[in-house]
Amino acid sequence: MSFPAAARRSLADSQMRHNVGHAVEVIRAKRERAVAELSDWEALRTAGADVKARALVTLPEQLERLEAEVARAGGTVHWARDGAEANAIVARIASGHGIDEVIKVKSLTTDEIGLNEALAARGVAVTETDLAELIVQLGGDRQSHILVPAIHRNRMEIRALFERTIAPGEALGDDPRALAEAARTYLRAKFLSVPMAVSGANFAIAETGTIAVVESEGNGRMCLTLPRVLVTVMGIEKVLPEWRDLEVFMQLLPRSSTAERMSPYTSLWTGLYPGDGPEEFHLILLDGGRSQVLADEVGRQALRCIRCSACLNVCPVYERVGGQAYESIYPGPIGAILTPQLSGFHDGTTLPWASSLCGACYEVCPVKIDIPTVLVHLRGRVVREVKSPAAPEAMAMRGVAYALRSRRRFEAAQRLARLGRGPLANAALHRWTAMRDLPEPPGQTFREWWSERPIPPTHPRQQ
Amino acid sequence: MSTARADILAAIRAAIGPVPVPGEVDRSYRGPWAHAPDVDLFCDRVQEYAARAHRTTRSGLDAKLHELCGERTGVPAGFPFPGIEDELLDVQTLSSLDTVLTGCALAIAETGTIVLDGGERCGRRALTLVPDHHVCIVTTSEIVASVPDAIASLDPRRPLTFISGPSATSDIELTRVEGVHGPRRLDVVVVDERAGG
Fold first, then answer.
1. I want to staple B43 with a disulfide (CB 3.0 to 4.6 A). Which of A63, A118, A250, B53 is the partner?
2. Least CB-CB distance to B160: which of A80, A268, A291?
3. Same structural domain for residues A144 and A268?
4. Last residue of a domain, one of A239, A254, A288
5. Contacts with B, A 301-330, CB within 8 Å
6. Does B77 touch chain A (CB under 8 A)?
7. How many beta-carbon contacts under 8 Å exist across A and B?
């Protein structure tokens, strides 16, 4: 479905609009306070952008260092060209241990590659342990926000869902506290017994082989600590070169994401540690279209993204349509530039237009991704590479190029523009003028005025 | 060598092309000033997460811990306060504890964070995760000013856990609920080493 069609569907859902509108307003205000506290915020953003840009142009070296360090600390590193390969590796690890149930830390990357469905198809049951992801999973639903994926659901719906699924026969009430308690009870049994967990990674440090997961609920700590086998799936762009780079991102991420000074829990681990945590650790490095994104010098900055969701919360388009209209695990402004690129322009080719180019996303981005510039760049790529040469934009641009090639044609075009104003243009361009006003062409062009002007008397040149 | 590995590295190299190696990262965010760790700030920030911060001295510590800890209190093996020592207790036993009492590797004033590193004062990760109540002793000399100061003095080879308040979720209508899967209550006991008595 195109973005305009999906957006129209979302706009009809008043519950979703109300919940998303409220959520972004609250988080936006909180983020401003959290960011204002740090006098060096702009310098941190610059450092964040620099570190990531540096990691991307030295990516082969960083990945090789990461691989060596993880292996040195007792972990096993796997490489996956695409999602299907990554999913098969996870499934193979599970079946190698005779495991038919895994628990999961919230991870956008594993959602991107459809890991849950792939494992289910191979007879491995997956339980999401983040509260919002559990709500989405139990309801067969789709995420509407990166940080709070079930924000489109209200407490009554969640209560009914839980009473139908994880707490049958119980009367939970509408209090979020009671609903969270029901999830705690249900998941605790899983944490204490399920032998394998799958996580994503917020960061991976090439220098030391350390992986970082930032979270709030403690479900991440449970998954990273208690099961015997831990598998982490990370996109290759998550790597940071040096240990000290963490000091930048552990300040940028929480304040941009949950708008806190620090998220409740950040877990850092390096391979295996005797007597503490899993006995087996696998790291899967996923390409999944990322190397092709790197080839676009303008578009590649999208790979700096640390998935904080600050750009969603300030986007006037996202605020109104919510995350589901983007039909991708990556919604909002970042999704509009990431989804088309990751899919090689198979998906989301209308997404680069899902923006008013107001630039608010760029201002809040902790790694200074210039989203408006990338949007405009991708619009060009879609028109040149994806759309047919008969598409209206392509034809219009060819027309303009033709007219601008000679003075005679340009002047004729100007006269035509004056004639063509009004009902004629509105009829021909009704889809464009429905949302915009055509500029009023002047009664006389500069060129016409110049050629008709009275010839001024020539002044004698001063000697 | 796996072909996936070779293919991915080759695809990345082809995509990047010959790019000059970038210069050093500008670390001016660290500023020219040196912050002194601020104990009052640390305590305030801990409280803002809906955790409790308590100030005490060496001599007042025992009484404070007795007041805070439940009947069945777990401690890391060899910990200098009495309790059920964690000799690889199974998760059911950990789950049945009222309280877990530990020290920390360091604490961060600016963010109100305690950091555990799996050392003998902190215990292994499961010990401070499964019980419902965590009491953490922080001596004032363990408090650093900022996140960069913390990163600089931690050992990345150890399993590290940064804890900023009790576990929390805002997933249902953005209503904050404290205490989901990690300990639902966190008490931070700050021991002032400079104070007399």
1. B53
2. A268
3. yes
4. A288
5. none
6. no
7. 243
CA distance B131 to B93: 9
Query: Given CB atoms, is B63 within the 8 Å cutoff of chain A?
Result: no
Closest-CA distance, B195 to chain A, in angstroms, reads 29
- Set out the domains of chain B in order of their start, with CATH numbers: 37-192 (3.40.50.10420)
| Tokens, residue B69 | 């800890």
- For each of chain B's 197 residues, which pLDDT tens digit applies? 569 999 999 999 999 988 777 788 989 888 756 678 899 999 999 999 989 999 999 999 999 999 999 999 999 999 999 999 999 999 999 999 999 999 999 999 999 999 999 999 999 999 999 999 999 999 999 999 999 999 999 999 999 999 999 999 999 999 999 888 989 999 999 999 876 54
Question: B22, exposed or middle or buried, with CB in 10 Å at 0-12, 13-18, 19+?
Answer: middle
CB A255 within 8 A of CB B148: no
Task: Say yes or no for a CB contact (<8 Å) between A262 and B19.
Answer: no
DSSP A367-391: T---HHHHHHHHHHHIIIIIS-TTS
Domain's final residue, options A237, A254, A288: A288
Q: Are residues A273 and B158, on separate chains, in Cβ contact within 8 Å? A: yes
Contact (Cβ atoms closer than 8 angstroms) between residue A287 and residue A238:
no
Kindly state whether residue A62 falls inside one of the protein's structural domains: yes
Do both A375 and A400 map to the same domain? no
- Same domain for A78 and A216: yes
- Say which of B174, B175, B181 has its CB closest to residue A219: B181
Helix or strand or coil: residue A76?
strand
pLDDT digits (tens, 9 = 90+) for A141-163: 999 999 999 999 999 999 999 99
Answer whether B174 sits within 8 Å of A151, measured CB to CB: yes
Q: List CB contacts (< 8 A) between B177 and chain A.
A: 176-177, 180
Instruction: For residue B91, give the nearest of A226, A258, A265 by CB distance.
Output: A226
Name the one residue in this structure whose structure tokens are 């069945």.
B72
Enter the ipTM: 0.96
